[in-house]
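Submission sheet (multi-component)
Chains listed below:
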Amino acid sequence: MPTSISKVSLRALALDLAWSLWAELGVSGWTRRHRNVALDLEPLIIATAYLGALDSRLLEESFDWCVTNARFISAVRLKNLLPSFELPVKKAFGSFAAAVKKHRSVSWPGDGKPLRVLRTGRSTIPDLHRPALVQLRLRAVFGVSARAEIVKRMLPEPDRPFGVSELAMYTAYGKDNLSDALDLLSLAGFVSRNVMTKAGNVYVFQSSAAGRLSALLGELPARDGYPYWAARFRVLLALIYFAEGASTDAAVRAAEIQRFTGQMKLDLRWLTTYPRLRRGVDAVNEDFDKWAFGLLRRWAGTTVDGD
Amino acid sequence: MLDPGSLEAALDALGRVLAARGLAYELVTVGGSSLMLLGLLRRPTRDLDVVAMVESGQYVKLRELPQPLLEAARDVGDALGIGPRWLNVGPSDLLDFGLPEGFAERTAVRRYGSLTLRLASRQDQLALKLYAAVDQGPQSKHLQDLRALEPKHEELVAAARWAVTHDPSAPFRSELTAALAALGMGDADVHF
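Outcome: structure written.
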């Protein structure tokens, strides 16, 4: 028998993570373990719509927050991110979105029968001064826009040039939208543009006002506190499906692990993590489980020194 | 490299993985690994050669393995540490020239979950090996495999008669005679 990932433990870690992030957004009653980690609202909402089936209180509180704070949420990013998630997530989000639309006039993507969920009325306007909420602070300044996401992505790495494709992936905005936003930021002196090719048709962009912006924005997460949450949630949810459907046959499971890592390799590459699997059925199962638990514990913020 | 234990383990795992993915395949195999599965050869091999797929009872030539089978074999190979290419399409052109008569009836059937293998018989493997040994020369693994199989005189005669149907040219006959002589059959040319 494989040393199978415990479904219950994985779910618990996923819920721990979601609760901690929602706690940063002001949802009450849970431990905040991501005080210095910039969160990303739209992938969190999409993932929560799915995880909410495991925790009705999380579903109710996050739903209430979304209805109360709909103005902070980007429908464009929801639309662009949703296709990158698996079908069960899309379905869950469709129902969640339909329920929000009953209370707020928003153009969120997704179809479905509205979720039967009641407003708790406990949500308030989030404290934008929290470092974790730098995204919302930027949206308050630049609008819910590609400009806010570009600045957020460039903030921790002011010396690094970014191509439009990479920015499109991180910000979840289309390239046309981004190019326009970069042009505006360039005109305003927030971003500098450099030509990368002799033909002069490929540009890279770099922050040119990081110091001024940081001073203006107040307390920010550390440079390594800006994770790629969309990829994290895709991997996290994929791990949950894997655990739910995993075979009890060790050899089959080991082969499915190989398939899993192959399917997720793009996200894993950007997240700079990859399971190191020894050879052999038992070793593959053991190494994968150890890696998966370690990863989720780290993301959930439940790892203690020495783990 | 594959030895009898690792090959059986890989096929067993592949059959179960295919079943778990709702897939089923029936394959015709030849070569060193097939001989190993028949217990006729023990040298380590690189891969298992698939010469055809069976669909509705008919042999179908393969240019490459079907993608779902390829992926499942790759996943199993990676998990077991035998590499992703342990199951390959072998000399599928054999189907164009024709397999030895009665080949299908002589195959040995092995079932591994959703995977069924039809292993070429000793008689047919001798014919295929002899043809390959002539084609690839006296230093090839095929001649060594033939020696290891210790074929009887009449088996070599039957194999040679089939081989010349594939290439009736004089140079081929000449090299075939030399190969048979190397296998201890001095009067080879009088038999075909």
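Remark: The CA atoms of residues 66 and 115 of chain A lie 14 Å apart.
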